Structure formats: structure tokens, C-alpha cells
């Protein structure tokens, strides 16, 4: 696969940026983490997550005999197991730093792994992965949030931005409930993927995301999305990674 990827971030209308991101086309690894826990804690947590993902994937790329924290699961492709192990290591990294002023910190994460034969997504919390295919935008993740749990239980709820439960997440790295949702993906030439924090998708919505994705090179699209989210009144930190997949 030929990959065109780029990331962009903006502090939004906050005083500091607790988002962290990684776009490594050479590793087939793309990660967005949204830190929780205040000024220092959120920044530290999201950075721990990104470093854990990149560190493990770099080690595996260098050494095919490298030890994995968890053995492969039956029925999982390599990329599913890779992201599961990255998430385990990220959880350990955040927990090890939760002392003193950092004791309340945590982070969401969404990660995409593209391999030669398979691909996968993993997420914890409410950072998302979207895919634009043949002009149709689809969310490939489902938020770990109280709002989504209420909907699954059949409770009628307003939109995320209108609900008092819209920002209450039920899973985060660094907390007791950090189990990731991991799924295999089927990737086609022409697909465009968007990894983003809630600071991007909330002010824009699906229609505006779909209209911008696929319109040029990844670096220009990522920057344009972030700028549009800010112009639309986005107050949170805003982060986007755009990944375009083409045939060799």
C-alpha cells in the first residue's frame, strides 16, 4: 500500500494542549491520545500513551524475536495483537506515573495499524476513527461513554453536545477500566482514514468531515479540518490525523 499521512493539532481555546499524536507511515502506526486530569496530568498521560505505542512498534520492527506482553489471541490478526499489546503497555506506563500531582491523570486513545496483509483499530474512551470510502463516511469506533451505554440500553437521549452525559467517558487508560475495543479492518485502495479527538468531531459533525476528507494531500486536509473546527467555535484541544491509502 502507498500511504499519504499527516497530523495537525491546535490548543483550541484552552490554555494548554493535552492531546498527543503520532503518524508513522514507516511503521504503519497512527495514534491520537487525549489526556485527562488537568494541565500537567493530561499532557503527561497522553505523551506516555503515544510513547508506549511507538516504542513497542519500533522494538518489534527492529527485532522479530522481541517479547510481547501478551501471546497472540486465536482468530486475531497480527495488527490486532500489536495494538492490544501497545494498549497494555500504555496502561502500565500511565499507571506508573499516577503519583502526587499526577494521581488523577488518564488518557483516551485511538490507534490504527496498517500491515502488509491486515489492519486493525483499537480505542479506549471517546477519541474516534472514521473512514471515508466511495464518498460514504463511517465511524469505525463507538465511544466508551455513558451516553453510548444509555443508547445501547434503549434510553432515548439527545445529541452528544446537548446531553449532560455527553462527555462522561466510561473507559480511559490510567483508570481501572482501560480495556480496549480492538477490531480487524479490511482496507481498500482509495480509503481515507481520520483519527481525531473530540475537539475536532464535535464542532464539525459528520457532513463537514466527509466534505473535507479526500480533498487533496493529507497534510493540507488535516490542517484544514483543525482550522475549521476552531473557526466553528471549538473550545477543546483539536487534533486530526489523516491517512490516505493508495495502490502501489
UniProtKB/TrEMBL annotation:
Protein name stated in the entry: Protein serine/threonine phosphatase PrpC, regulation of stationary phase
MF annotations from Gene Ontology: protein serine/threonine phosphatase activity
Transmembrane segment boundaries: none
SMART domains, per the entry: PP2C_SIG (SM00331), PP2Cc (SM00332)
Taxonomy, superkingdom: Bacteria
Listed PANTHER family: PROTEIN PHOSPHATASE
PPM-type phosphatase domain span: 1-245
Pfam family, one: PP2C_2
CDD domains, A to Z: PP2Cc
InterPro entries: PP2C, PPM-type-like_dom_sf, PPM-type_phosphatase-like_dom
Amino acid at each position: 500500500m502507498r500511504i499519504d499521512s499527516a497530523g495537525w493539532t491546535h490548543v483550541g481555546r484552552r490554555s494548554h494542549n493535552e492531546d498527543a499524536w503520532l503518524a508513522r507511515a514507516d511503521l504503519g502506526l497512527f495514534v491520537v491520545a487525549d489526556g485527562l486530569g488537568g494541565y500537567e496530568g493530561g499532557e503527561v498521560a497522553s505523551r506516555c500513551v503515544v510513547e508506549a505505542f511507538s516504542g513497542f512498534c519500533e522494538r518489534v520492527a527492529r527485532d522479530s524475536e522481541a517479547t510481547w506482553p501478551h501471546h497472540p489471541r486465536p482468530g486475531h490478526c497480527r495488527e490486532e495483537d500489536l495494538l492490544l499489546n501497545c494498549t497494555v503497555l500504555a496502561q502500565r506506563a500511565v499507571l506508573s506515573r499516577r503519583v502526587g500531582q499526577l494521581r488523577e491523570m488518564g488518557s483516551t486513545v485511538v490507534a490504527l495499524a496498517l500491515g502488509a496483509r491486515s489492519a486493525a483499530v483499537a480505542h479506549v474512551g471517546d477519541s474516534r476513527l472514521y473512514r471515508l470510502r466511495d464518498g460514504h463516511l463511517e465511524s469505525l469506533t463507538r465511544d466508551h461513554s455513558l451516553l453510548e451505554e444509555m443508547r445501547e440500553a434503549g434510553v432515548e437521549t439527545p445529541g452528544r453536545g446537548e446531553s449532560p452525559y455527553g462527555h462522561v467517558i466510561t473507559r480511559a487508560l490510567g483508570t481501572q477500566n482501560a480495556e480496549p475495543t480492538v477490531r480487524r479492518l479490511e482496507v481498500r485502495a482509495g480509503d481515507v482514514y481520520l483519527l481525531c479527538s473530540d475537539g475536532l468531531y464535535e464542532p464539525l459533525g459528520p457532513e463537514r468531515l466527509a466534505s473535507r476528507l479526500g480533498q487533496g494531500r493529507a497534510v493540507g486536509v488535516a490542517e484544514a479540518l483543525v482550522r475549521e473546527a476552531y473557526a466553528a467555535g471549538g473550545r477543546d484541544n483539536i487534533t486530526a490525523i489523516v491517512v490516505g491509502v493508495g495502490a502501489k
